[in-house]
Structure prediction request, 367 residues.
Amino acid sequence: MKLPAIDVLRGVAALGVAWYHSRVDLWVGFKAIQADPAAYSWFDRAISWVSLPVSQMGAMVMLFFVLSGFCIHLPIAGRAQMPNWKAYAARRFFRIYPAYFGTLVVCWVGSWALSAPQEGGFPQSGIYAASAVMVQNWVFDGRQISMNPSLWSIPVEAELYFVYPLLLWIFFHYGLKWSLVFTLICSAFGLAMFLLGLGNPNGSFFKYALIWSSGAWLAERYASQRLPKWSSGHAWALLAVFILTLLAGFLGVDVFFVHYGWGLFSFLLVWWVLGPGSLFFSRSAPWVRILAFTGTISYSIYLLHFPLFRLAGAAWVSMFGSKPDSFFIPTLATLLVVPVAWVFFRVIEMPSHQIGRRLGRALQVTS
Prediction:
């Protein structure tokens, strides 16, 4: 079932996360401009204010989690039948790992190119090895490779893929109530990790189980045509959650809690686009086609944007001696990631998808 609205949301989320991260290496920063406004042009001062909402767009990863739960569950939603788990595993592996590993290779080459003249040797070999087997969130104090800190979410996604069969089994055998209880237990464990300072609570499936499962619930209700009707009350809730969570982010509330706010907003947003919001996503509209295309390559955008910004930032500083003054530069860089991601998608991601689908169909038939 192809839903253009879902692809549009993927595209928006990918561009939002990339725009958020573009500020790290390709801009002097809002605080620097406010501290010495006379040192910058009126245009740079004016456009710097655009960065304020962008500073909260990193949490669009929560939208990815909700969409993931929705898309993973949708093919079997409304059916009281467990899927073929061998086929499921093959599709999930080839959906995320080849492109993920390819990104690690790109990051290592880029990191070596930047560090070899000064340091030599193999950069961050331990973290790269941990990242290759997707356990970096649990070791090295949850640190990521310096070329791509955004890779933290991919192991979380993989963990949720492993948890989903158990969640589905509970749902089929004991109903929605007990599957919700299981999800809340996971969330409670994540909260305990945060409160007790155990491990890396922001890098485990425990924290995000509730957010991801909310997407699966939407898929179940949508497929069975039992999704509650969107009302004005839901619309006001969507607006209120957006404003309150945005304020919480600006006020410095810990990201552990802010993520839940954006998770609730993402849940309501997807609910809206499945209902009355679907009217805004006609396939014939040019903006829908553009963002749906971006959504199709959103995984490649997510994987590649940070190392591309790292390399571009290093090149800029090498040529001009400091980071760009204008927020226009990281904004332009965000858009320029799209064609590079498209090439990566065509060369690595799309072929691996095709292998996963063929293997999944073969396993489905032979089981």
Remarks:
- DSSP finds 15 helices and no strands in the chain.
- The chain has a mean pLDDT of 93.
